[in-house]
Amino acid sequence: MPRRGARRIRRAGPVPAPCSTVAVPLNDLDERIVHALAEDARRTYADIGAEVGLSAPAVKRRVDRLRERGAITGFTVRVDPSALGWQTEGFIEMYCRSRTSPEDIHRALAHYSEVAAASTVTGEADALVQVFAADMRHFEAVLERIAGEPFVERTKSVLVLSPLLRRYTAGPPL
């Protein structure tokens, strides 16, 4: 019997999401501020203000408003996984049993420190999981643990040879 892809997943309630589902319109100044913070979240409001033509207090007010509206959800650092010993990166396609909800997948994968990201997807697979591991043996062990989850029917994996492009901003390019 042919697979029906993501339609097989039972929707039991809200899916945990990292961001709001309502678009927050940004004007040009807000976009420039968001991009400046995405490049370096430690920049001062005065530094950003000099770049975008606003005072430091005006930048702070805009950042506060963007946080309240959900356009900015936090401030973080970018870490080079290989500098922390994570030398192997791969993606695992998960094919789940018919009664598996996105919440079930989320709940199981949240326990894996090696999982950097996971999403439900279109196509035959039900979810796509980004994994970082110390080496090939470690990646294989993580793959086997994920494949052993009770709702997983099968998996398919690919390894990253060289990252070609990584963007750290969620907004449109300037």
Automatic annotation (TrEMBL):
Residues 26-87 form the HTH asnC-type domain. GO terms for biological process: response to amino acid. SMART domains: HTH_ASNC (SM00344). Keywords: DNA-binding, Transcription, Transcription regulation. One of its GO terms (cellular component) is cytosol. The keyword Transcription regulation applies. Coiled coil: none annotated. GO terms for molecular function: sequence-specific DNA binding. This is DNA-binding transcriptional regulator, Lrp family.
